[in-house]
Amino acid sequence: MSLNQVCTFLILFFATLASGTTVNLTSNSSGLLWDGEDSVSLQCTTLINDTSIWKLNGEALPHNRRYNITEESSGLISNLIISPVSRNDTGSFTCTTSNTNETSNALNLALAWSPDNLHIACNIQSNKSASSLQLSCSWGGGEPAAEVTMIFNNTKETANNTLMRDVHPTGDGNPIILHCEGVHVRANSSCSITLERPQSSDNKNDTTTSVKPGETTVLTLNLQAGLYAQFAWFHHDPNPVPLTTGGKYKIESDGSNSRLHISEVTSKEKGTYECVAMTPIGSTSFVFKLDVEQDSGLSGGAIAGIVIGVLAGVALIGVAVFFILKKK
What we know:
The chain is mostly beta strands. Helices cover 14% and strands 42% of the residues. This is Ig-like domain-containing protein. InterPro entries: Ig-like_dom (IPR007110), Ig-like_dom_sf (IPR036179), Ig-like_fold (IPR013783), Ig_I-set (IPR013098), Ig_sub (IPR003599), Ig_sub2 (IPR003598), IgSF_CEA-related (IPR052598).
């Protein structure tokens, strides 16, 4: 045995004695190892010439091109190079001697990766009853976990990955402002969201819909992106009369828009209609005007009779003119 081999043996001997076992596992890295980027070398040392079996979470290491195992000639050292590391390497690495079946200390890699999304997400949702709001700040999926801070009504809360909070707004119409901040090992991110009373870019409160008697028309309210809304329709005659589905009216709503169907329109249905959209923040009224064209009151048969009469009159005038000219 050469001097170098003797020195190596003594180093391994004292290292394994210090660890309290005849098999010792070490790593050349003590910092974070980034998924898909970094590499690491693990070294298994023994006091006897024996083959080492590498394991991850107690199972034999699977065949993978990222794993490269080499045995040194002394038979005392087995090296495992992982290039690149992956989040699949999460867990405990060990090496076990094949003959004496002695297992080393467990070694866990300090793996790291970025959150699932590039930026933190802000969100405000309401339930269908529109009685409460759920605020959330989310930036999950990273390792180590991102630190998430929610700022609302001049208060701050901090947690890992996700923060959620239920609030009961007063419905006074004041905007709700949510601000989220996220801190991860590699990046910082922030977002804000402001929600106001229901808004619509389609309805200007000054447009008039014209229909003919007997036709069907639909008055539609489309809200801008926001909270789940409830809707109420009224017909001003001249005072507001609540409308419900039945008879000539049919109302369809889905939380972001509402439609009022009016079938077989007559002059009685003309006038001003109002749709009130309600959310936990407050309510907004939208006005629609319906104009029904004047009905002549003549049936199709009557109109046909008038046309025939006119044509007959024109024909008689023509005959009279012919005989007058002939006498001359």
